[in-house]
Structure formats: C-alpha cells, structure tokens
Design goal:
The protein contains eight helices and nine strands. Strands 2, 3, 4, 7, 8 and 9 form a six-stranded parallel β-sheet that branches. By secondary structure, it is an alpha/beta fold. It is elongated. Helix 1 crosses helix 6.
Amino acid sequence: MKVFFINYKKVSIIALIIVILLILFMLILNFQRSSEVFNNKEDVFYKGNIDEKVVAFTCNVDWGEEYLPKMFEIFEENNIHITFFVTGKWAEKNTDLLIKMKELGHEIGSHGYSHKDYGNLNYEENRNEIKKANDIIMEKTGLEPVFFAPPSGSYNDQTVIAAKEFGYKVIMWDVDTIDWRKDSTKEKITSRVMNKVRKGSIVLMHPKEETIKALPTIIKLLMDRGYKIGKVSDIIA
C-alpha cells in the first residue's frame, strides 16, 4: 500500500498563487470596464446630437402623480410627445398612469428602481437598481426602455457600464427648470427654460404645480421661436 504525504507548504503556495491570480483578474476586469467608459463617453448625453431646431422635454417621475393628468392634457392639446423617466418603485404603485403614458404616445425611460445617489453605488448596486426598474417597466408596458436618467443626475463610471449592459444611453440635461425648489414660480421656470434653450436641448422638469402653470407659456414661446418639441429619441440620432 502506497502512502501519500501532503506537502502543506506546497499547497499553501499554490493556494496563495491562485488567490493572487484571482485578484489580478478582478483588477484587470475593473480596469477594462473603466477604460471602456472612458472611451465611450458618447453614451452620456447632455444634449442632442442633431443639427435641427428641436428640443426634448423630459419629466422625471418618482412622485407628483397628482399633476400628471393635467400634464398629459397640456401635451395632448399641443400634439406633443415627451420622454417620461419613471422609477421602478413608482411604476409598481402607479401602473394606470404608466399605461396612460404609453397609450398617449409618450416615451418611457428608466429612472432606476429607487431615487438613490447612483454616483455613490458600485457596479453591482448600480446594475441591480437598473435591472429591477428595467424588468418592472417591461412587465407593465411591454416596452423595453432605451434611455436611463440617473436620479439627481448623479452617476459614476460603474453606472454607465451597468446602463450600457442593458443597451441604455445615459441621459442628462442642459436646461434645468429646477421646478422642485420651493421658490420656483411659473415665471422663474419659464425664464430658466427660455434663457438657455438651443438646438437639441434636453429640458428637465418634474410633475409640479408651478410646472403645470408654466408649460403652456413655454410651449407657445418655443413654437414662436420655431422650435419643435419632442422626445429624447427625436434629438439623438
């Protein structure tokens, strides 16, 4: 009978080498991911990339559902379709309004599952939030979103990598209504839009009372200047 002796020193060295190789593999993988984002900044849009007099209205929705029916009405009266970015958590609780957005011809994008600071999340956390929202929106509407707007505009490289994994383009803005602030009146919101708007602008808003008051004026002024108002997909080729 043969007797086998285990050389624990050799086993320890082999185990150490395997651990080191795994660490190196993870470092290389993370470096490749970071490099991919660095070389693909075209996946983050602060404005459109077309040279036409079109602006995109975007509305981030995680609350304010009581103002959406009036917002729908204003857009329908003016034959305008915009992009609504909804959180998965909101979509779960407000399916009827989500379906109404779809039926009216508006574009539905992802705002992540919950309104977190995505810029402080790691890759897995970003991916989980984005996937959960993606699955809910698809389940409720039958549509797969193609745009992702990070809450509060906060993102990091890992956010972009995770979003790109689902085929998303990350959408920011170049015109902010700042309508969520308590001192934001109809006049201030209108001024913020009209003073900064340009070809291919992405105008950010939320379902707020003063926004509802400002919308008819903003729409008229933009149309008087020769602008068309549409969705994010209308300004990104």
